[in-house]
Write a structure and sequence with these properties.
heterodimer; A: mainly beta; 7-stranded mixed beta sheet; 4-stranded antiparallel beta sheet; 0% helix; B: mainly beta; 6-stranded mixed beta sheet; 5-stranded antiparallel beta sheet; 11 strands
């Protein structure tokens, strides 16, 4: 069982370039999330989705776009990368439990460096 | 939105001793408080969680306590072992968006 798979695992971009991070989950989870992790700042929510075809902004959405065309996939796009977007990105998925989130299952992360 | 503060940011303990990590939250409506452990190069994994109708929960060497009046909750690890060395995150929510603390790096000295 693969769980949550992120691709690519590493990427180096130049300022102004664009790229897409792909997240795929095989657990049939309704909810999916993109977080970024920076030293001393924990995990901050970028965007999330509560179902196929729906997305919403999280805590730090500026400079990112997302799409969820299929239930199992959640894409995170950077249209014009900036050095401030250098970070480790984590995708997670879950199903709701008693009105709140259930256990989040995380991918292994994608390390992005913007020069 | 919810604001979660976590202390300390680093913690070094002797193998066999106990470790305690404390978190406070701001939104009194929060009712779900999980703890995640992140090993080097991996994504976070849930280790224990507690809901607001419970004051304490224990699972082998780890336990979590919740004080809703004071809006704080804590993680306790007893008889620490080298494999407990990791980054630990607390989180809080009352819906489907978790707000995480900044993390505590725990180092267990042999």
């Amino acid at each position: 069982n693969a769980g949550v798979t992120q691709t690519p695992k590493f990427r180096v971009l130049k300022t102004g370039q664009s790229m897409t991070l792909l997240c795929a989950q095989d657990m049939n989870h309704e909810y999916m999330y993109w977080y970024r992790q920076d030293p001393g700042m924990g995990l901050r929510l970028i965007h999330y989705s509560v179902g196929e075809g729906t997305t919403a902004k999280g805590e730090v959405p500026d400079g990112y776009n997302v799409s969820r065309l299929k239930k199992q996939n959640f894409l995170l796009g950077l249209e014009s990368a900036a050095p401030s977007q250098t970070s480790v990105y984590f995708c997670a998925s879950t199903r709701p439990l008693a009105g709140v989130t259930g256990e989040l299952f995380f991918g292994e992360g994608s390390r992005l460096t913007v020069l | 939105g919810e604001n979660v503060e976590q202390h300390p940011s680093t913690l070094s303990v002797q193998e066999g001793d106990s470790a305690v990590i404390k978190c406070t939250y701001s939104d009194s409506a929060s009712n779900y408080f999980p703890w995640y452990k992140q090993e080097l190069g991996k994504g976070p994994q849930l280790i224990i969680d507690i809901r607001s109708n419970v004051g304490e929960k224990k699972d082998q060497r780890i336990a979590v306590t919740l004080n809703k009046t004071a809006k704080h909750f804590s993680l306790h690890i007893t008889e620490t072992q080298p494999e407990d060395s990791a980054v630990y995150f607390c989180a809080a929510t009352n819906d489907y968006k978790l707000s995480f603390g900044a993390g505590t790096t725990v180092t267990v000295r042999a």
